[in-house]
Prior knowledge:
The complex is a heterodimer.
Chain A: E1 2-6, H1 22-33, E2 37-43, H2 48-53, E3 60-65, H3 72-82, E4 87-91, H4 103-111, E5 115-124, E6 129-134, E7 140-145, E8 149-153, H5 165-170, E9 172-177, E10 189-192, H6 208-216, E11 223-226, H7 230-243, H8 247-251
Parallel strand pairs in A: 1-2, 1-4, 2-3, 3-9, 4-8, 5-8
Antiparallel strand pairs in A: 5-6, 6-7
Helix pairs in contact in A: 3-4
Chain B: H1 22-25, E1 42-46, H2 56-69, E2 75-81, E3 94-98, H3 106-120, E4 124-128, H4 131-144, E5 148-152, E6 154-155, E7 160-164, E8 169-173, E9 178-181, E10 197-198, E11 211-217, E12 231-235, H5 242-252, E13 255-258, H6 260-264, E14 285-289, H7 295-299, E15 306-311, H8 317-321, E16 324-327, H9 330-342
Parallel strand pairs in B: 1-2, 1-4, 2-3, 3-10, 4-9, 5-9, 12-13, 12-14, 14-15, 15-16
Antiparallel strand pairs in B: 6-7, 7-8
Amino acid sequence: MRAVVLLSAGRHPLSARPAPVPVEMQAIALARGLGADVAGLHAGAPDLAVREALGQGMDRVTVLRIGEADDAVAALAAALAADPPDLVLAGNRGRGGEDSGLLPYLLAEALGWPIAANAVALAAAAEGLAVIQARARGARWRLVVAPPAVVTVHPAAPPALPFAYARARRGRIEEQEGRSAPLVPRVAEERPYRPRPRVIGVAGGGSAAERLRAATEVAGGGRVLVDPPPEEAARELLAWLRALGFSRSADE
Amino acid sequence: MRVGQRPRMRLDRRGVEAVPPAAMVAAEPAPRRRVVAEPAYLIFAVAEAEGGRLSRHERQVLGAARRLADPGGGAVVLVAPSLAEDAGAAGADRLLSLAAAERYDLEAATALLAAAAARYSPRHVLFAENEGGGDLARRLAARLGAPFAAGVEALSAREAVCPCRARRAELRLAPPFLLSLAPDRAAPHVGPAHEASPLDPPAAGAVRRGILTAAPLPVTAAEVPLAEAGLVVAAGNGVKDFAGFLRLCSALGATPGASRVVCDAGAMPRAAQVGASGTVLDALAYVAFGIAGAPQHLQGLGRVEHVAAVNTDIHAAMIARAELAIVQDARRVMPALLALLEAGG
């Protein structure tokens, strides 16, 4: 089985120095866990972050040289279609670029391959590849996709392999000319990040005292049962949980 | 006297005899549903509605959709599987129900959303930026080739702001067709309920099948990390029988938590600690057995919506915080609850 891990030019959130994106390193570990032959693929200028990825379980990385204003999806799709692997892995969000997490989806659409998002585990299945997908509130889904497929990796996946300096020195970076297609520029203004306050409680109405109360207490006050018999207390608790929709888990 | 509708006390120095203004005497108007009969445009808000209920995040998405719809006389369409609660109270003018079969079929859901977008041509489609909503939003963006803003942190009718470059920069742009809203960035809808009248779902287009099967995996609640758990049951100093407590947690399908005192004593692992020096929860519901509710513990409940408490002290802070407070010994309620669950509820 051949797997290609998409590497991006990651930046460290504090120092802004080139640093590999952690979730992409986890993707390498997942691919190696499958026993796949893993190679890296990067579109853009050769980047220090990509070289560091060699130390975390990869022998070779192909860099498709494209310009700043070129579309990475077109270059990646052309390279993957020319020599299709069984599996393309990517992080679910980049760190250092636009960070929208959209590229794997656009790539899957361009190639006509299925995509499974937020993988935390991969296994070979009879019909294809089984992907365990992270969902909200700690839930997990099991998807089976037919290879070739694109899979994005979730941060809850097993940790990356330890960095090995000698491997990073030994690994090869092959540079190629990538297919250049101009990207339609986005009408957006880029500014330094400004942290904004989060919404707490019910905003927008009432005085400051009311907003504080909404943020710290239950609106309208709770029900208080004083010294009920334990059986009645248990019934009340269970009815409360059922009303919140926890009956299914209670029935299991 | 109080002046006007605002609940703020003001001094009235006019020396006039205090006559309540007419507005104050007038009876509260009967709750009426707000109806947007002829919307100028539509805003879609897509929700997964796990268990038939809108999550806090999804109610925030509906609130943000209202902010986009209200200035121009638009209407909010909630696209969700069938709901067990009132979508109108959350601010939905229309309801577009997805069939239950499409719950696990992401490709069919994408095709249906694309068909709905083609038929009703909404101005914006809003998603919740979490594992499920974010996935669907990007699938639709790739399918339609539509502009998309991911993890929007500030949204108004004129601009959307989303972080980029490892959160060291932000993009300001006019709200694109597809948006996913980060959690806790918009207020949920408050005020009168909207009508939530049903729209007929469009005929689904062709579905390209690449995902062969999809099904939820049974997850043992005890193995779910506390920060991700949906239901947390926690033990404090009022609990002595920890084997029984863990049995109760597994019978309820809840993730076990504990207070600092219990973790310090070694009765529960440190990973189970809830509070400022432990885990801050994002659960839907929390049940506290024998926990008084120190401020550091209550900090850990920052985002929990529904809290129940069992404690012997009626003046405990946890009783004041709880939506359902039971003043009784946790050592007597826990076995009763376990017996009730084992008897089949």
